[in-house]
Amino acid sequence: MFRLLVLYLAYLAYLLSPAISSERQQHHLQHGLCSYTFILPEVEHCHPSNDFQVTNTLQRDSPPEVSPDTGQSKLGKAQKERPSWQEKKLESLESAMENNTQWLQKLENFIQENVRSGMEEMKRTAVHTQTAAMLEMGTNLLSQSAEQTRKLTDVETQVLNQTSRLEIQLLEYSLFTNQLEKHILQQTQEISRLSDKNSFLEQRLLALETQYGRELQGLESEKQQLQELVERQSQLVSRLQGELGSSTLNSTLLQSQQAVLTDTVQQLLARVNKCDEISNVPKREPLSFRDCAEILQSGVTESGIYIIRLPNSTHTVKVFCDMKTQGGGWTVLQHRRNGSLDFHRGWRDYKVGFGEPSGEHWLGNDNIHKLTTSQEYSLHIQLKDSEGNEAFSQYDHFYIDGEDNNYSLHAERFSGTAGRTSSLTHTGTEFSTKDRDNDRCTCKCAQLASGGWWFEACGPSNLNGIYYPSSSSVVRYNGIKWYYWKGPNFMATMTTMMVRPANF
Ligand SMILES: *[C@@H]1O[C@H](CO)[C@@H](O)[C@H](O)[C@H]1NC(C)=O
Ligand SMILES: *[C@@H]1O[C@H](CO)[C@@H](O)[C@H](O)[C@H]1NC(C)=O
Ligand SMILES: *[C@@H]1O[C@H](CO)[C@@H](O)[C@H](O)[C@H]1NC(C)=O
Ligand SMILES: *[C@@H]1O[C@H](CO)[C@@H](O)[C@H](O)[C@H]1NC(C)=O
Ligand SMILES: *[C@@H]1O[C@H](CO)[C@@H](O)[C@H](O)[C@H]1NC(C)=O
Ligand SMILES: *[C@@H]1O[C@H](CO)[C@@H](O)[C@H](O)[C@H]1NC(C)=O
């Protein structure tokens, strides 16, 4: 529309141009990019034709088809001819002018309108271009988005790839873990099997241990039994040793006794000779002391061997008199000092006595009975141990029965230093030897303890036991014993039993 208008205007201008080329007034209009040229008609040259009419239409505006020369000439002629016509002409011109101006205004309006529409067109074109640009941009964006989506799909595929790979790895891992689990299961089974085996072995071990413990206990008890046996055997052996010692002593003793006998025989012979010599000397009353107390009272104060004549008897006995101990006058019944004499003898030996008064000696039960029953006697027992300690026990009333009563013991009114209690058995205890068992034991004390003594069961004393030459840690039941002084294991080096009248 706009373009059509422009064309139209251009065409109009072309049509007008030859007519108004030289002197006509030109109007230029500039509107935006477009410029418009209007050529206004000249009044002085115009001579109005009859059919010339100025209209406000464009067709009317077009120059009259009369050539300008003719027109001018016509006008000029009109002016020259008639001034009223001219005036009329002027007026018509003025109205034409007015019309033209109106037309111009209209045109202007129209142009303005057109311009506005052009503007709108321009705006529309601008919108078009903008939309085109937008479209381009859109396409660009679309392409870009397509690119992006492509990239995105790439990324997605990559991600998918990664995830699939990860899934594969996961699968592999799960497979691996499954395998591991299987392995672990197998291992645990193995372990449980091993532990079962171990517990079984432990049970076996326990059983073996208990068995061995029982066996060990049995062995230990056997060992203890064996030890006891050995102890008993050793005791037996020691006893046998003692017996062996005494028997060896026996043989040597026999020899020494023989020597002593020959000695005494020679002495006797010498004395007989002497007697023969002093037979001429006025005969004195024959000495007949019944004990050493009498000998002491007769003035003899030297300890030694003397002969006494037992009361109510013609029988004389050689005795050792102790003239020193507690005033002297002691008749010795028993004496031991070096173990040279065997005291493990039978009933008869103890009955008649054995040994020599000069050495180890037993006076004899018959003699003791006769002596101690002739009057009241005191018994004095002297003891000396291996360390040289001395002690004594004294009984102010002492005697023994005769053989009818198996030489029963009567010893009372005890005193002394060898123990607070009497080690002799109580009154009435019979005498026992290895061949006459009168003790109150089911055993045979004389054989167990050896020697002849007043054993009860078997009692706390035995001064006629075996004389052991040296002390020993082994408990001996058959040695010399005085229990309440030194206990069961007393090592006596010296013992003496002696009597003197209680009223001495
Ligand atoms: C002006 O226009 C009016 C109406 O169109 C017309 O009647 C009149 O004659 C015109 N005047 C001239 C001088 O052409
Ligand atoms: C994943 O990517 C690797 C290389 O990065 C390629 O070799 C493989 O074939 C791809 N796998 C899939 C399933 O696309
Ligand atoms: C010792 O000799 C006497 C005889 O002298 C004898 O009776 C006694 O049995 C002997 N003792 C031992 C232990 O052999
Ligand atoms: C024991 O003593 C007597 C008398 O002193 C003596 O003859 C004898 O040789 C002594 N015996 C021993 C073994 O010492
Ligand atoms: C000694 O013998 C006489 C008679 O023979 C007798 O009367 C007296 O009691 C006896 N004395 C002793 C101690 O035995
Ligand atoms: C003395 O001992 C013997 C045997 O050893 C016995 O038969 C007798 O009865 C005893 N005598 C007394 C009085 O106990």
UniProtKB/TrEMBL annotation:
Residues 53-87 are annotated as: Disordered. Residues 78-87 have a biased composition (Basic and acidic residues). SUPFAM superfamilies: Fibrinogen C-terminal domain-like. SMART domains: FBG (SM00186). GO terms for cellular component: extracellular region. Residues 184-243 form a coiled coil. GO terms for biological process: angiogenesis; blood coagulation. CDD domains: FReD. Its main location: secreted. Residues 283-503 form the Fibrinogen C-terminal domain. It comes from the Eukaryota. Keywords: Angiogenesis, Coiled coil, Disulfide bond, Glycoprotein, Secreted, Signal. Residues 1-21 form the signal peptide. It is found in: Secreted. This is Fibrinogen C-terminal domain-containing protein. It comes from Mola mola (Ocean sunfish). The lineage of its organism: Eukaryota, Metazoa, Chordata, Craniata, Vertebrata.
